[in-house]
Task: inverse folding
């Protein structure tokens, strides 16, 4: 019998309840490209471009293949309503996707079923996959929302199978990210208010240090920029960045 006093927060210590509730309130609107998650829809193609390049380089794959992840197991940690998990499944992976907001997981499951995709969605934090191993672990714009970033990164690294790869993205803690993401995008309504806490942002050196301390080798850091033409990959990490790592 389950003790009714046991909460999600005590089972999954990585979760910040207020953060999960915030994103849970946005769940029904997640797949609307003109809704509150419009910025994510604009960002997703760039995420996928970086991710595809990272996996092709890591496994020396044919970049013309439609299913480069066939036969591989992928984890998307902090999956929201499935904007990244679904493309991973279409690339051929067996996908396990985890999110702290049960509302987001419910929307993700319904959307995957409607699209004929078999994705193992789970509610919770990184603790939901303890003891499991994955060829690919992704966690995009998530580490800045967890209770203990170092413990979270350590758990992500532990989930990377031998020969596997970890890909993360997160905003950098700079004056530019504060102006663009917090002072700008949230105040103008392009991102829902309360989405970001600038003080939780990690610099590339900080995140890279956590990843290396967790036993992985950082193989790439690439910036994410935002200009008049939209999001793009670039050398500048001042706003946001991607990080790829493999087991050393």
Result:
């Amino acid at each position: 019998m389950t003790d009714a006093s046991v909460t999600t927060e005590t089972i999954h210590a990585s979760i910040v309840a207020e953060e999960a509730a915030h994103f849970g309130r946005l769940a029904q609107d997640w797949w609307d490209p003109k809704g509150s998650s419009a910025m994510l829809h604009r960002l997703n193609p760039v995420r996928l471009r970086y991710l595809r390049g990272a996996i092709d380089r890591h496994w020396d794959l044919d970049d013309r293949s439609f299913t480069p992840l066939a036969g591989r197991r992928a984890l998307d940690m902090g999956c929201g309503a499935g904007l990244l998990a679904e493309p991973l499944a279409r690339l051929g992976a067996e996908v396990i996707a985890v999110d702290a907001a049960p509302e987001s997981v419910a929307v993700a499951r319904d959307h995957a079923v409607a699209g004929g995709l078999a994705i193992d969605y789970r509610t919770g934090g990184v603790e939901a996959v303890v003891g499991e191993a994955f060829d690919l672990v992704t966690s995009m714009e998530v580490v800045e929302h967890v209770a203990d970033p170092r413990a979270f990164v350590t758990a992500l690294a532990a989930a990377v199978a031998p020969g596997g790869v970890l890909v993360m993205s997160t905003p950098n803690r700079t004056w530019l990210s504060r102006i663009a993401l917090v002072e700008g995008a949230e105040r103008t309504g392009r991102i829902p208010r309360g989405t970001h806490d600038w003080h939780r942002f990690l610099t590339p050196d900080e995140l890279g240090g956590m990843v290396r301390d967790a036993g992985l080798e950082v193989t790439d850091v690439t910036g994410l920029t935002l200009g008049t033409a939209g999001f793009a990959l670039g050398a500048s990490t001042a706003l946001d960045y991607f990080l790829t790592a493999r087991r050393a």
About this structure: Residues 8-247 form a domain with the Rossmann fold fold (CATH 3.40.50.150). Helices lie at 8-11, 17-25, 38-59, 85-90, 102-114, 149-158, 175-186, 204-213. The two ends are 42 Å apart (CA to CA).
